[in-house]
Amino acid sequence: MVEKNQRVSRGIIENQNMPRSWRKETKPHRFCPGCGHGIALKALGDVVDELGILDQVLYGCDIGCSLLSWDFFNFDSIQTHHGRTIPVIVGAKRARPEIVGIAYMGDGGGYAIGAQHLVNAATRGDRITAIVANNTLYAMTGGQMAPTTLPRQKTSTTPYGRDPLITGSPTLGPELVAAIASEGSYVARGTVGDYNKLKLFIKKALLNQMEGKGFSFVEVLSTCPTNWRTGAKETWGFLQGKMENYFKVGELQVSQGNRLGEEG
Amino acid sequence: MITESGGVKMAKETLAGEYQEILNNEKEMFMTGNEVVAWAALAAEADFMYGYPITPQNEIMYYWAKLAPAFGRGFLQTEDEISAGFTMLGGALVGKKTFSATAGPGNILMQESISMAEMMRLPGVWIIQQRGGPSTATVIYSQQEFRLTTTGGNGEGMRLVYSTSSHQELFESTIKAFNNAWKYRFPTFVLGDGYQAKMREPVVLFNPKLRNWEIIAAEPIAMKSGVPYLERDPVHLRNTFNIEEELYDILSGHLADFRRMKQEVVEWDEGGSEKADLLVVAHGIVGRAAISAVKTVNNQGLRVKYFRPITVRPFPGEALRKIVSEEPELKILVAESAYGQLLSVVKEELYGLANTIESYLKPGLGITAEEIEEILVRLGKKEG
């Protein structure tokens, strides 16, 4: 008992602002100063605490900055290849439906290299929760263009700004998922600029999975001052100005055409 | 929610008993190789198949999709082979025996997940029904996926690969593959081909437990019981490392495990004349043709042996080297339906020995017993 209590006391994080499901031993975390991942993962940690599902969560993270969260929490996790987090979590969930499967990735993993997995998990109505952090570029590899890079935004592979005539327009992930996901799916876009709303969306996404209703998807508008090369003020300005202007925050209605259980 | 369909209910009520009886009574069946694989997976207590259609493995999915629901086991047709491989690993992670089947370009797409499995020691069984290559090529027959299956991926090829030559061996090796995949936790393969997949021949199906074969159970790697952190340590798996030395240490451990596994799993088949002038080395159904050819020429008085590796990775190199090193005059013939993929392994294993190595290489084409016979007669003729 003593040993167990010691472990419990070791697990309690003194700072009341930190979720209990956060792993104290791996804090401070490895993300850059000003990075939005910390806020997104705080919302996730708070929700796991509130739902009391520490022992039910299987958390998958991708390649790219999201992989830095591989030992971020006190629940079980697996870090996969770029874009492959959704299939790993789908496979686990199919094999053991009682698990609460969370696939966490960036916009490259969600909308480019792993787009086929997002599209098909959504249409199949896989009972998992996918969370995609959208920071408008590939951060870990050096700030290249992502599917979500805004028109005229400069990145290391669009040094003169993204030209939509050459590389198209930013991918609207939640809008895409809402158009194709099976009935019962949950789709929302939150932002690290509105913590309470983001937390609510993540909570609803996890509950939707736990109630067995369908695929659950949350895009999180996030910040990357390192690759944006911005100070604190400009970082927040880009997020709440340009990004939130282009990517509308809120819940999305799943298309009514995608009914389950209907004969073809 | 979608409820269980009438078909699945019927399968559980009626088919399950029928299928179990076939296994328990060791019934001799006349079936295709793909059907044999599905039965072997059932007998090995596989839980879940994740697959994507590609010829010539498709019927494995058809039969499994029919057999599995009767036993409460699962099947998911994924969006591609990349997904099939990674969903498999997700299932294995949480303690289920998972497998997939593929061929050719699908085998290439599977390599990504196989590399991750190799690094993270996630178990799984892959059935490879080889087809011609490169690229789309043909769908009937080939041995050109030998190299890809044994050493593909960005790593060291820490894999266990069975190459089978008959339906009986296909059934038994598939059961062994499941056992050894979960025992040693290296990616495990059954390397078949289009002929074996589609051909029908007699096979005795059996329940391995009734023959006292141990069936290794799958254990959860993550999501074990207990509240993580409070009752047990959380499981945090990764395949990314910050420094080369950290990776090197982990790989060194894996390589040591792989060398240990080799001693316990290598299998081969050898036979023919006791003293020989010639040794044929071939795997899979070319190995079967070679054995048939050796028997014929032995009856004609030619002194010929055969060596057929059953595990082509790890390769039974010591056994081969022992045969060859005992007879300095022994000439070797390597026959394969590929352009030197087995040959290069044989050369590596026999490095330093002075024996002559001949080869008969027909990439993507079948090799008959008669063809091998003809070469053996030509090579086996005494000089002068």
Describe the fold and architecture.
The complex is a heterodimer of chains A (264) and B (384). With 264 residues, chain A is an alpha/beta fold. Helices cover 37% and strands 16% of the residues of chain A. Chain A contains ten helices and nine strands. In chain A, the strands form two sheets. Chain A has a seven-stranded mixed β-sheet, with helices on both faces. In chain A, helix 8 (195-210) links the parallel strand 7 and strand 8 (216-221). By secondary structure, chain B is of the alpha/beta class. Chain B folds into two domains: 6-211, Rossmann fold (3-Layer(aba) Sandwich); 269-380, Rossmann fold (3-Layer(aba) Sandwich). Chain B has a seven-stranded mixed β-sheet with strand order 3-2-4-5-7-6-13, sandwiched between helices. In chain B, strands 10-12-11-14-15 form a five-stranded mixed β-sheet, with helices on both faces. In chain B, strands 1-8 form a two-stranded antiparallel ribbon. The mean pLDDT of chain B is 96. Classes of the chains: A alpha/beta (264), B alpha/beta (384). The interface between A and B is large, with 41 and 43 residues.
Give the helices and strands, then pairings:
The complex is a heterodimer of chains A (264) and B (384).
Chain A: H1 2-11, H2 37-51, E1 57-61, E2 76-79, H3 85-95, E3 100-106, H4 107-111, H5 115-124, E4 129-134, E5 137-138, E6 144-145, H6 164-167, H7 173-180, E7 186-191, H8 195-210, E8 216-221, H9 225-228, H10 232-246, E9 250-252
Parallel strand pairs in A: 1-2, 1-3, 3-4, 4-8, 7-8
Antiparallel strand pairs in A: 5-6, 7-9
Helix pairs in contact in A: 2-8
Chain B: H1 6-24, E1 28-32, H2 33-43, E2 48-51, H3 58-70, E3 74-77, H4 81-93, E4 98-102, H5 104-120, E5 125-130, H6 146-151, E6 160-163, H7 167-184, E7 188-193, H8 194-198, E8 200-204, E9 236-237, H9 244-265, E10 268-272, E11 278-281, H10 284-299, E12 304-309, E13 311-313, H11 317-326, E14 331-336, H12 341-349, E15 357-361, H13 369-380
Helix pairs in contact in B: 1-3, 2-3, 2-7, 4-5, 10-13
